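Lab notebook, bench 4. Still working through the backlog of constructs that have no structural model yet. Next entry is a single chain of 318 residues. Request: give me the structure tokens for it.
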Amino acid sequence: MNTIPLIDVSAALGADGPGKDRLVELFRDTYSEIGFAYVTGHGIDPALVKAVFAASMGFHALPDPQKSAIKVDKNHRGYIAINTSTDVNSKLAEVKKPNQSASFMMMREDAVADPQVYLSGPNQWPKMSGFRQALEAYNDAMSCLASHLMAIAARAAGGDPADVMPAFSQPTTWLRLLHYPPVPQDSPDDLYGSAPHTDFGCLTLLAQDPVGGLQVMAANGDWLDAPYCEGTFVLNVGDILHRLSNGRLRATPHRVVNRSGRERYSVPFFYDPHVSAVISPLPGAGEPQFEPIQFGEFLRAELEAGYDAHKPKPASGA
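Model written out:
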């Protein structure tokens, strides 16, 4: 499969029946091969998408001191400046240069941080009219959609949603407002907007603008362009769902290269289990190929490796 398909996921939002059964089969076929698709029939109001892009552009246009005042904290909420994240865990390239992107990260809104729950805490909000409201409305709508799609993914993996969805009763969600400045045409080949990587969670739903730059690795190793497609989200599977599916569903490598000469904006939404969830291949997915892992421990290793804000501080006095 060397093209990125278009899938109508409206059956995921309805009652059980033949339409949902067909969607499960289509999901299994698509995500066991290319692992990426454009999804339509998702039910998300275009006005919510427009509002979150407007919020992103407004935020990234703020002066640097205002953005840096809410720089990303140890709970992974706030502003992630350019040149502060590097995909050092990439299995596809030796990545030494940081990603050429900046972003704002929102996660679940907790009134206070619970020291027993990794990454719990309140979000950091810029002083911008309507910004928080736009993000929270979008996050709520995407969480609902992702919950329906996760149930489809569980069936596609050969499992029963009843074995999966309890881990998502309080999901880990990430809403990221990404800004990619243009990279010069003569820049080194290993300078990326986002270096080749797989997502580390379960499901990613990406809204992107018409500038382009996203590329997806086909099963044969070719890089395929994944341009803007109006009214759709790009849906892909991450490493944790790959493990849950016992390898049946493919966590597909992808990258961003922005040599368009224009600024690029995208809004990925990531939907994952609670940090306390223990991830094992689903019953019904065959002889287990992966050992159980706790999602929170897996996350900690990924974030400490990839983000300056999470790197352990060296011991003093040594």
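Notes after review: The two ends are 55 Å apart (CA to CA). The CA atoms of residues 5 and 37 lie 5 Å apart. Flag for follow-up if needed.
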